[in-house]
Amino acid sequence: MLPQAAVAPVVKLMKAPRHQTGHIGSVSCLALCGEFILSGSQGKDIIVWQQPDLRQFTKFGQGDGSVKALASIGNKVFTAHQDSRIRVWKVSRSSENIFRLVDTLPTTKDYLGKFMKQSNYVQIRRHHKRLWIEHADSISCLAVHNGLIYSGSWDKTLKVWRISDFKCLESIKAHDDAINGLVSSKRIIYSASADGKIKAWEKEGKSTHSLKGILEGHKDVSVNSVAVSEDGSLVYGGGSDGYVLGWLGNKLFDSWRVICEVKAHEMAVLCMCLMGEFLCCGSADRSISIWKREINGGLFRFGVIKGHEGPVKCLQASPRCVGGGFMLYSGSLDKSLRVWWIPKSSGGTEDTSPIQRAGNISPFSF
Asked: Among candidates 241, 80, 275, 76, which has minimal Cα distance to 163?
């Protein structure tokens, strides 16, 4: 196990006045969309910000309850909501209303094609049934992969939707507790759950998925987030006990073994994202830890970012290289969205210990 002490570089936060056009509730999710970054909140609003200076471009939103997850592909944006629905928005620059609602999942067509047949209903609670294409609780996460969009819910199911016609193809009873995170890599979809497991799913045939393997976390600890390397070989899970576990997969992606276990935070790890060799973790302790991957998949601490006044709920790294580093966006329960510049080197430090200081982690905020 790696050393547990945290080396926190001094970060001078540049504060700016609050804007009335910002979120009125906690920031719950982030997604990149071209030159923009989108942020969703406990309110129904989704704000579109220009990168990297976070100037507000526009806002949109519809539905009941908070926005739980965002995903973007091509000219479409998918938003998942507490009301158990997924909304589809078309991005167009030809009109003033750049984000236009085009459909809601399940679609009316999909619903009407199934509601007459009793075999299409599933028992969700005593004396209460629902169509299998409908989620029975909040949708907590989304992932887009190979023409499909996946939705994970607190109802413990994973649903698969076809992007071309928005039809629900499959509903999987994936976990024994709420699904908290989804990520795709290569041909595998990984789901992280409060039941303490990460499960790997592979598409077989046109619409069905099979369970490829189970990555076991700590006993009685919720896995709140999951991240996967570009080549699919490394999987990381963040737990409610503050630990990050890493697994190495084989070439067939049907077997994984634990390769690292680090105490990343004093409180729960709520979100993670990978950018190249860097793993970024946001926590309920209001900090963000930056880890650098070793060749064998192990992690050493690169730096710690402090500045948020509430738990860090979501992270999104931009792939654009800026000044030898990358931009990291963070959303928090303190209602703020911040952007940080993360250097890809430690500033030439002579420190040879597993824990190194970040040279200059520069904050910008609104």
From this structure: 76
